[in-house]
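Fold sample X.
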Amino acid sequence: MSRNRGITTPDKSSLASYDGMNPSIGLIRIGRIVNQLVKRMNYLYSKCRVILLLVYTGSWITLDAAEHDAYVVGDVVKIPVLSVGASIYSLDLQLIPNTDPVQLVMVAAQEITLSEANLSNASSFANNTLTIPTLTAGNASYRIELILVSVEPSVILQLSKVDLLPAETTPSTNSQPTRTQTDFEKAEALFNESIAQPIVQSKCISCHRQGRSAGGTSLVFVRSSATSQGINIAAFEALLQRRNDGINYILRKVSGNGHGGGTQLAAGSASYNNLSEFLTLLSR
């Protein structure tokens, strides 16, 4: 045995005496055991890191169970109630500019308690997927799914699915079987029929997408996919909310006035009029 400052440590010969093996072999075996333990600890750390990153240093707060729906403020998605296993958090996710597919980074989190235990409409995180049952953006609501793509150095999630939720209506007391279509629903139908493919995908997407010449402008679109309709409508809606002259601004651009891409739609043409009607409906 060797001694150092009063602490007894085994030398190679004593290590070998434990099982009768060569001292070098004994040290190698111990090293392998240590490496296995380190790998196991790293695995557990990576699995738990998302939950650990959600723990906030502030005090616990109490929320009413009715306020579960997520909503958008600027470029931040605010999730009031997120269920992660047995814990509950509030969460802020910020849009990462010029990402396609869309990615968001976690910028704030706080562990909370609820005055009621009903989490039926709360957001949840399980199997590396964050599900938002209701996300309100402008005049529309969506069901969103985000997949976890990174936990270091920041928690980053990527949009994997978007479903537009039907507009809520107040039950009518009369016997009429039909209801009036909302302006947003009219805008969505017009976009799907006359804007998405004939204009956005055929004329705009070559420049107005990430990595292209107009990828840093106020209108950035994504290529056709299962989620592109909701994302591209939201891009138009965000610009209209930021600018009081949003409709005229877009129409001037597409008709070639101050547009780096030149004239894309002639003023007065069918496509120009369809775009004008879509923007008007979307801005109401």
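Fold sample Y, listed below.
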Amino acid sequence: MPVELSERELFDAIAVLGERHDDGARIARHALGWLGWEGEGPLLLRRYDVQVFTWYQLPAKFLASLEDKREVARGVALTLEQLGGQAATYARALRSHETDQLLESWELSSSIGRMLSRAAGGFRARASGHRASQLAQKRNFVGAVRRAELRAIRST
């Protein structure tokens, strides 16, 4: 179920982040643009959109250093947290240890990154909302990361 963020909420979040951080407003505008907002009107945001951005678009499509990608993830997370409510819960994907591992893996090898992105997508698709189920799926994702690392080491 998407969360609808009004134009007013979006502009308020941009203003607050602009007051708190030197580049906060610019980062927030870019973050919202990456998530599909065109600078006017409401934004319908789904957890899926954040996950696709986090686990595929950011690592695979951004021609930037690892540290720059981490900064983008932090900026998007800050923006979502500033928006509050359901949008704030979406920031967890951007701040997770698994996401950081995924970004590092894409830097090492795009084939490892693609494999881990697919694993993350499976994690997302299987998410049921139940805490025990989510923990089991997280363990599966971390296991996929470790297996990919082992394969990469063996292949060198």
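Sample Y note: The chain is about 80% helix and 5% strand.
Also: Residues 30 and 123 are 27 Å apart (CA to CA).
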